[in-house]
## 1
Amino acid sequence: MSATGAPPSGPSKITLPALHEKAARSERLVMMTAYDYPSARIVDDSDVDMILVGDSLAMVVLGHESTLSVTMDEMLHHARAVARGARRALLIGDMPFMSFQTGPADALRNAGRFLKEAGMDAVKLEGGKPVVESVRAITRAGIPVVGHLGLTPQHIRALGGYRVQGRTADAARALYEDALALQDAGCFCIVIEGVPARLAAFVTERLEIPTIGIGAGVGTSGQVLVFHDLLGLWEGKSPRFVKRYADLGDRARAAMATYRDEVAAGTFPADEHSYGMSDTEWDAFLAAIEQAPIAMVP
Ligand code: KIV
């Protein structure tokens, strides 16, 4: 806040109506994940529309084997750091496993925590018809909700692995029904993950709200990727829908090896990384030490 009480001027914040207007003009929406202050700064500076503090942080940041272990408190901790780093993008907190599956009351309480305690603008939750009542409870409280259908990693045990969804006629119909149900319940957009491109395009054409694809082809209203996947910071196996735009992991390892070698060889720190002291002060210091030696502490 400035002395006049006005917030500091900066890039104008993306609002929900602005997102919908953009989608209505058939401009594609860009979503990225971020998990901490530096990643939020980088992503926000690249003018994306939405930042998702995804529960994928369980894997890419915390090193868990799946997204199931991350807790509500851990999500809030990371969401707060992202909110401190992002000024422009619409911020979405991902509701972790068991923060909403236990019913609408828990869902509403935990969704509220993302806005109240972590500065998020909206929440995302996985699932179709079974979560419709929770979506209704959250949206009724004025909290914008993003749905998430298709390959929903919180259902990994039931799905039997990270498999493409909606590949049979029945499964495709069920996904379409789920999308309509989420729209009816008040979701302002839906992430569609790991489904055939033609199904994602079909659903997108028939919904009034935008869709955000990941492994769902180019026929959605926009796209999301995981920060560590895009930058080559993730060592695990990546699905085919991941495109690496940089290999920062390799570059970081090379930088670390050079640092280690320079420390070992005594070439770092060099003069330009060190602080000086005048000869006068140095000589005075040596003389003082000689005159009144400092006793060694036993
Ligand atoms: O947690 C996450 O990063 C996600 C995206 C992949 C959509 O849910």
Note: The chain has a mean pLDDT of 95.
## 2
Amino acid sequence: MGRKLLVSGNWKMNYTHLEAITALQALDVRLNRSLLAKVDVSIHPPFTALRSVQTVVEADDIPVMLGAQNCHFEDKGAYTGEVSPSMLAKLGVQLVIVGHSERRTYFHETDDDISRKLSAVLRNKMIPMLCVGESLAEREEGATEAKLESQLRGALAGIDRKSLSDLVVAYEPIWAIGTGRAAYPDDAEAACRHLRSVLSQLLGSELAEQIRLLYGGSVDPDNTAELVSNEDVDGVLVGGASLDPEKFAAIIKQAASTG
Ligand code: PEP
């Protein structure tokens, strides 16, 4: 396919700004520039570490994209405790995760909230990384495809298709997140193929081909190569293993040599 894979590290609610700098530097020494030319990498630190990570990325010229894990759907206003997309854009954030299952579950985010966030990210010229995925019960009931389709349709409702060429969609089965039990590569491919076909119905096949589809859920250095060797899996979203610079570097190397 000749595609450039994307490897994204979601650090979740881990690392102070000082720990984040140490982690980034530990990652940087494990990666060489020619490797990073073959694969796109983004890291998504917590809000409090974004500025520090951005400074180190810029000062040391590290070719990784700066990502956030969430944002509000308004650019400013009376929303105590929230962080707006325009604040993130000003910090040099390029990608923003929207609709992670932990936000859907613990913070009760609906498809409508997620759609508004996605639109806010685009309005601020950043790339949304939309997360979708089924629960174990839904998989066991055979409802995986229906769930993915409804989350995708819900999130993309009303959004101008022309703005979506850089969209990233991460297939993250909830039962695989943080459990050490990754999806079988064939199941990840089937889910991503289904997502691409729904995207094709919604946006047309040309655009659907351009959209990068990631797999996320217990990705580690041992399962990366097989996961990304599938035609419709254009990269991986990594949680736990991205906190370990050794493992995250190994995942990036696997993706760089497979893509
Ligand atoms: C995630 O939460 O996005 C994730 C993929 O987590 P983990 O890799 O730890 O399963």
Note: The pocket of phosphoenolpyruvate is lined by residues 10, 172, 177-178, 216-219, 237-241 (CB under 6 Å).
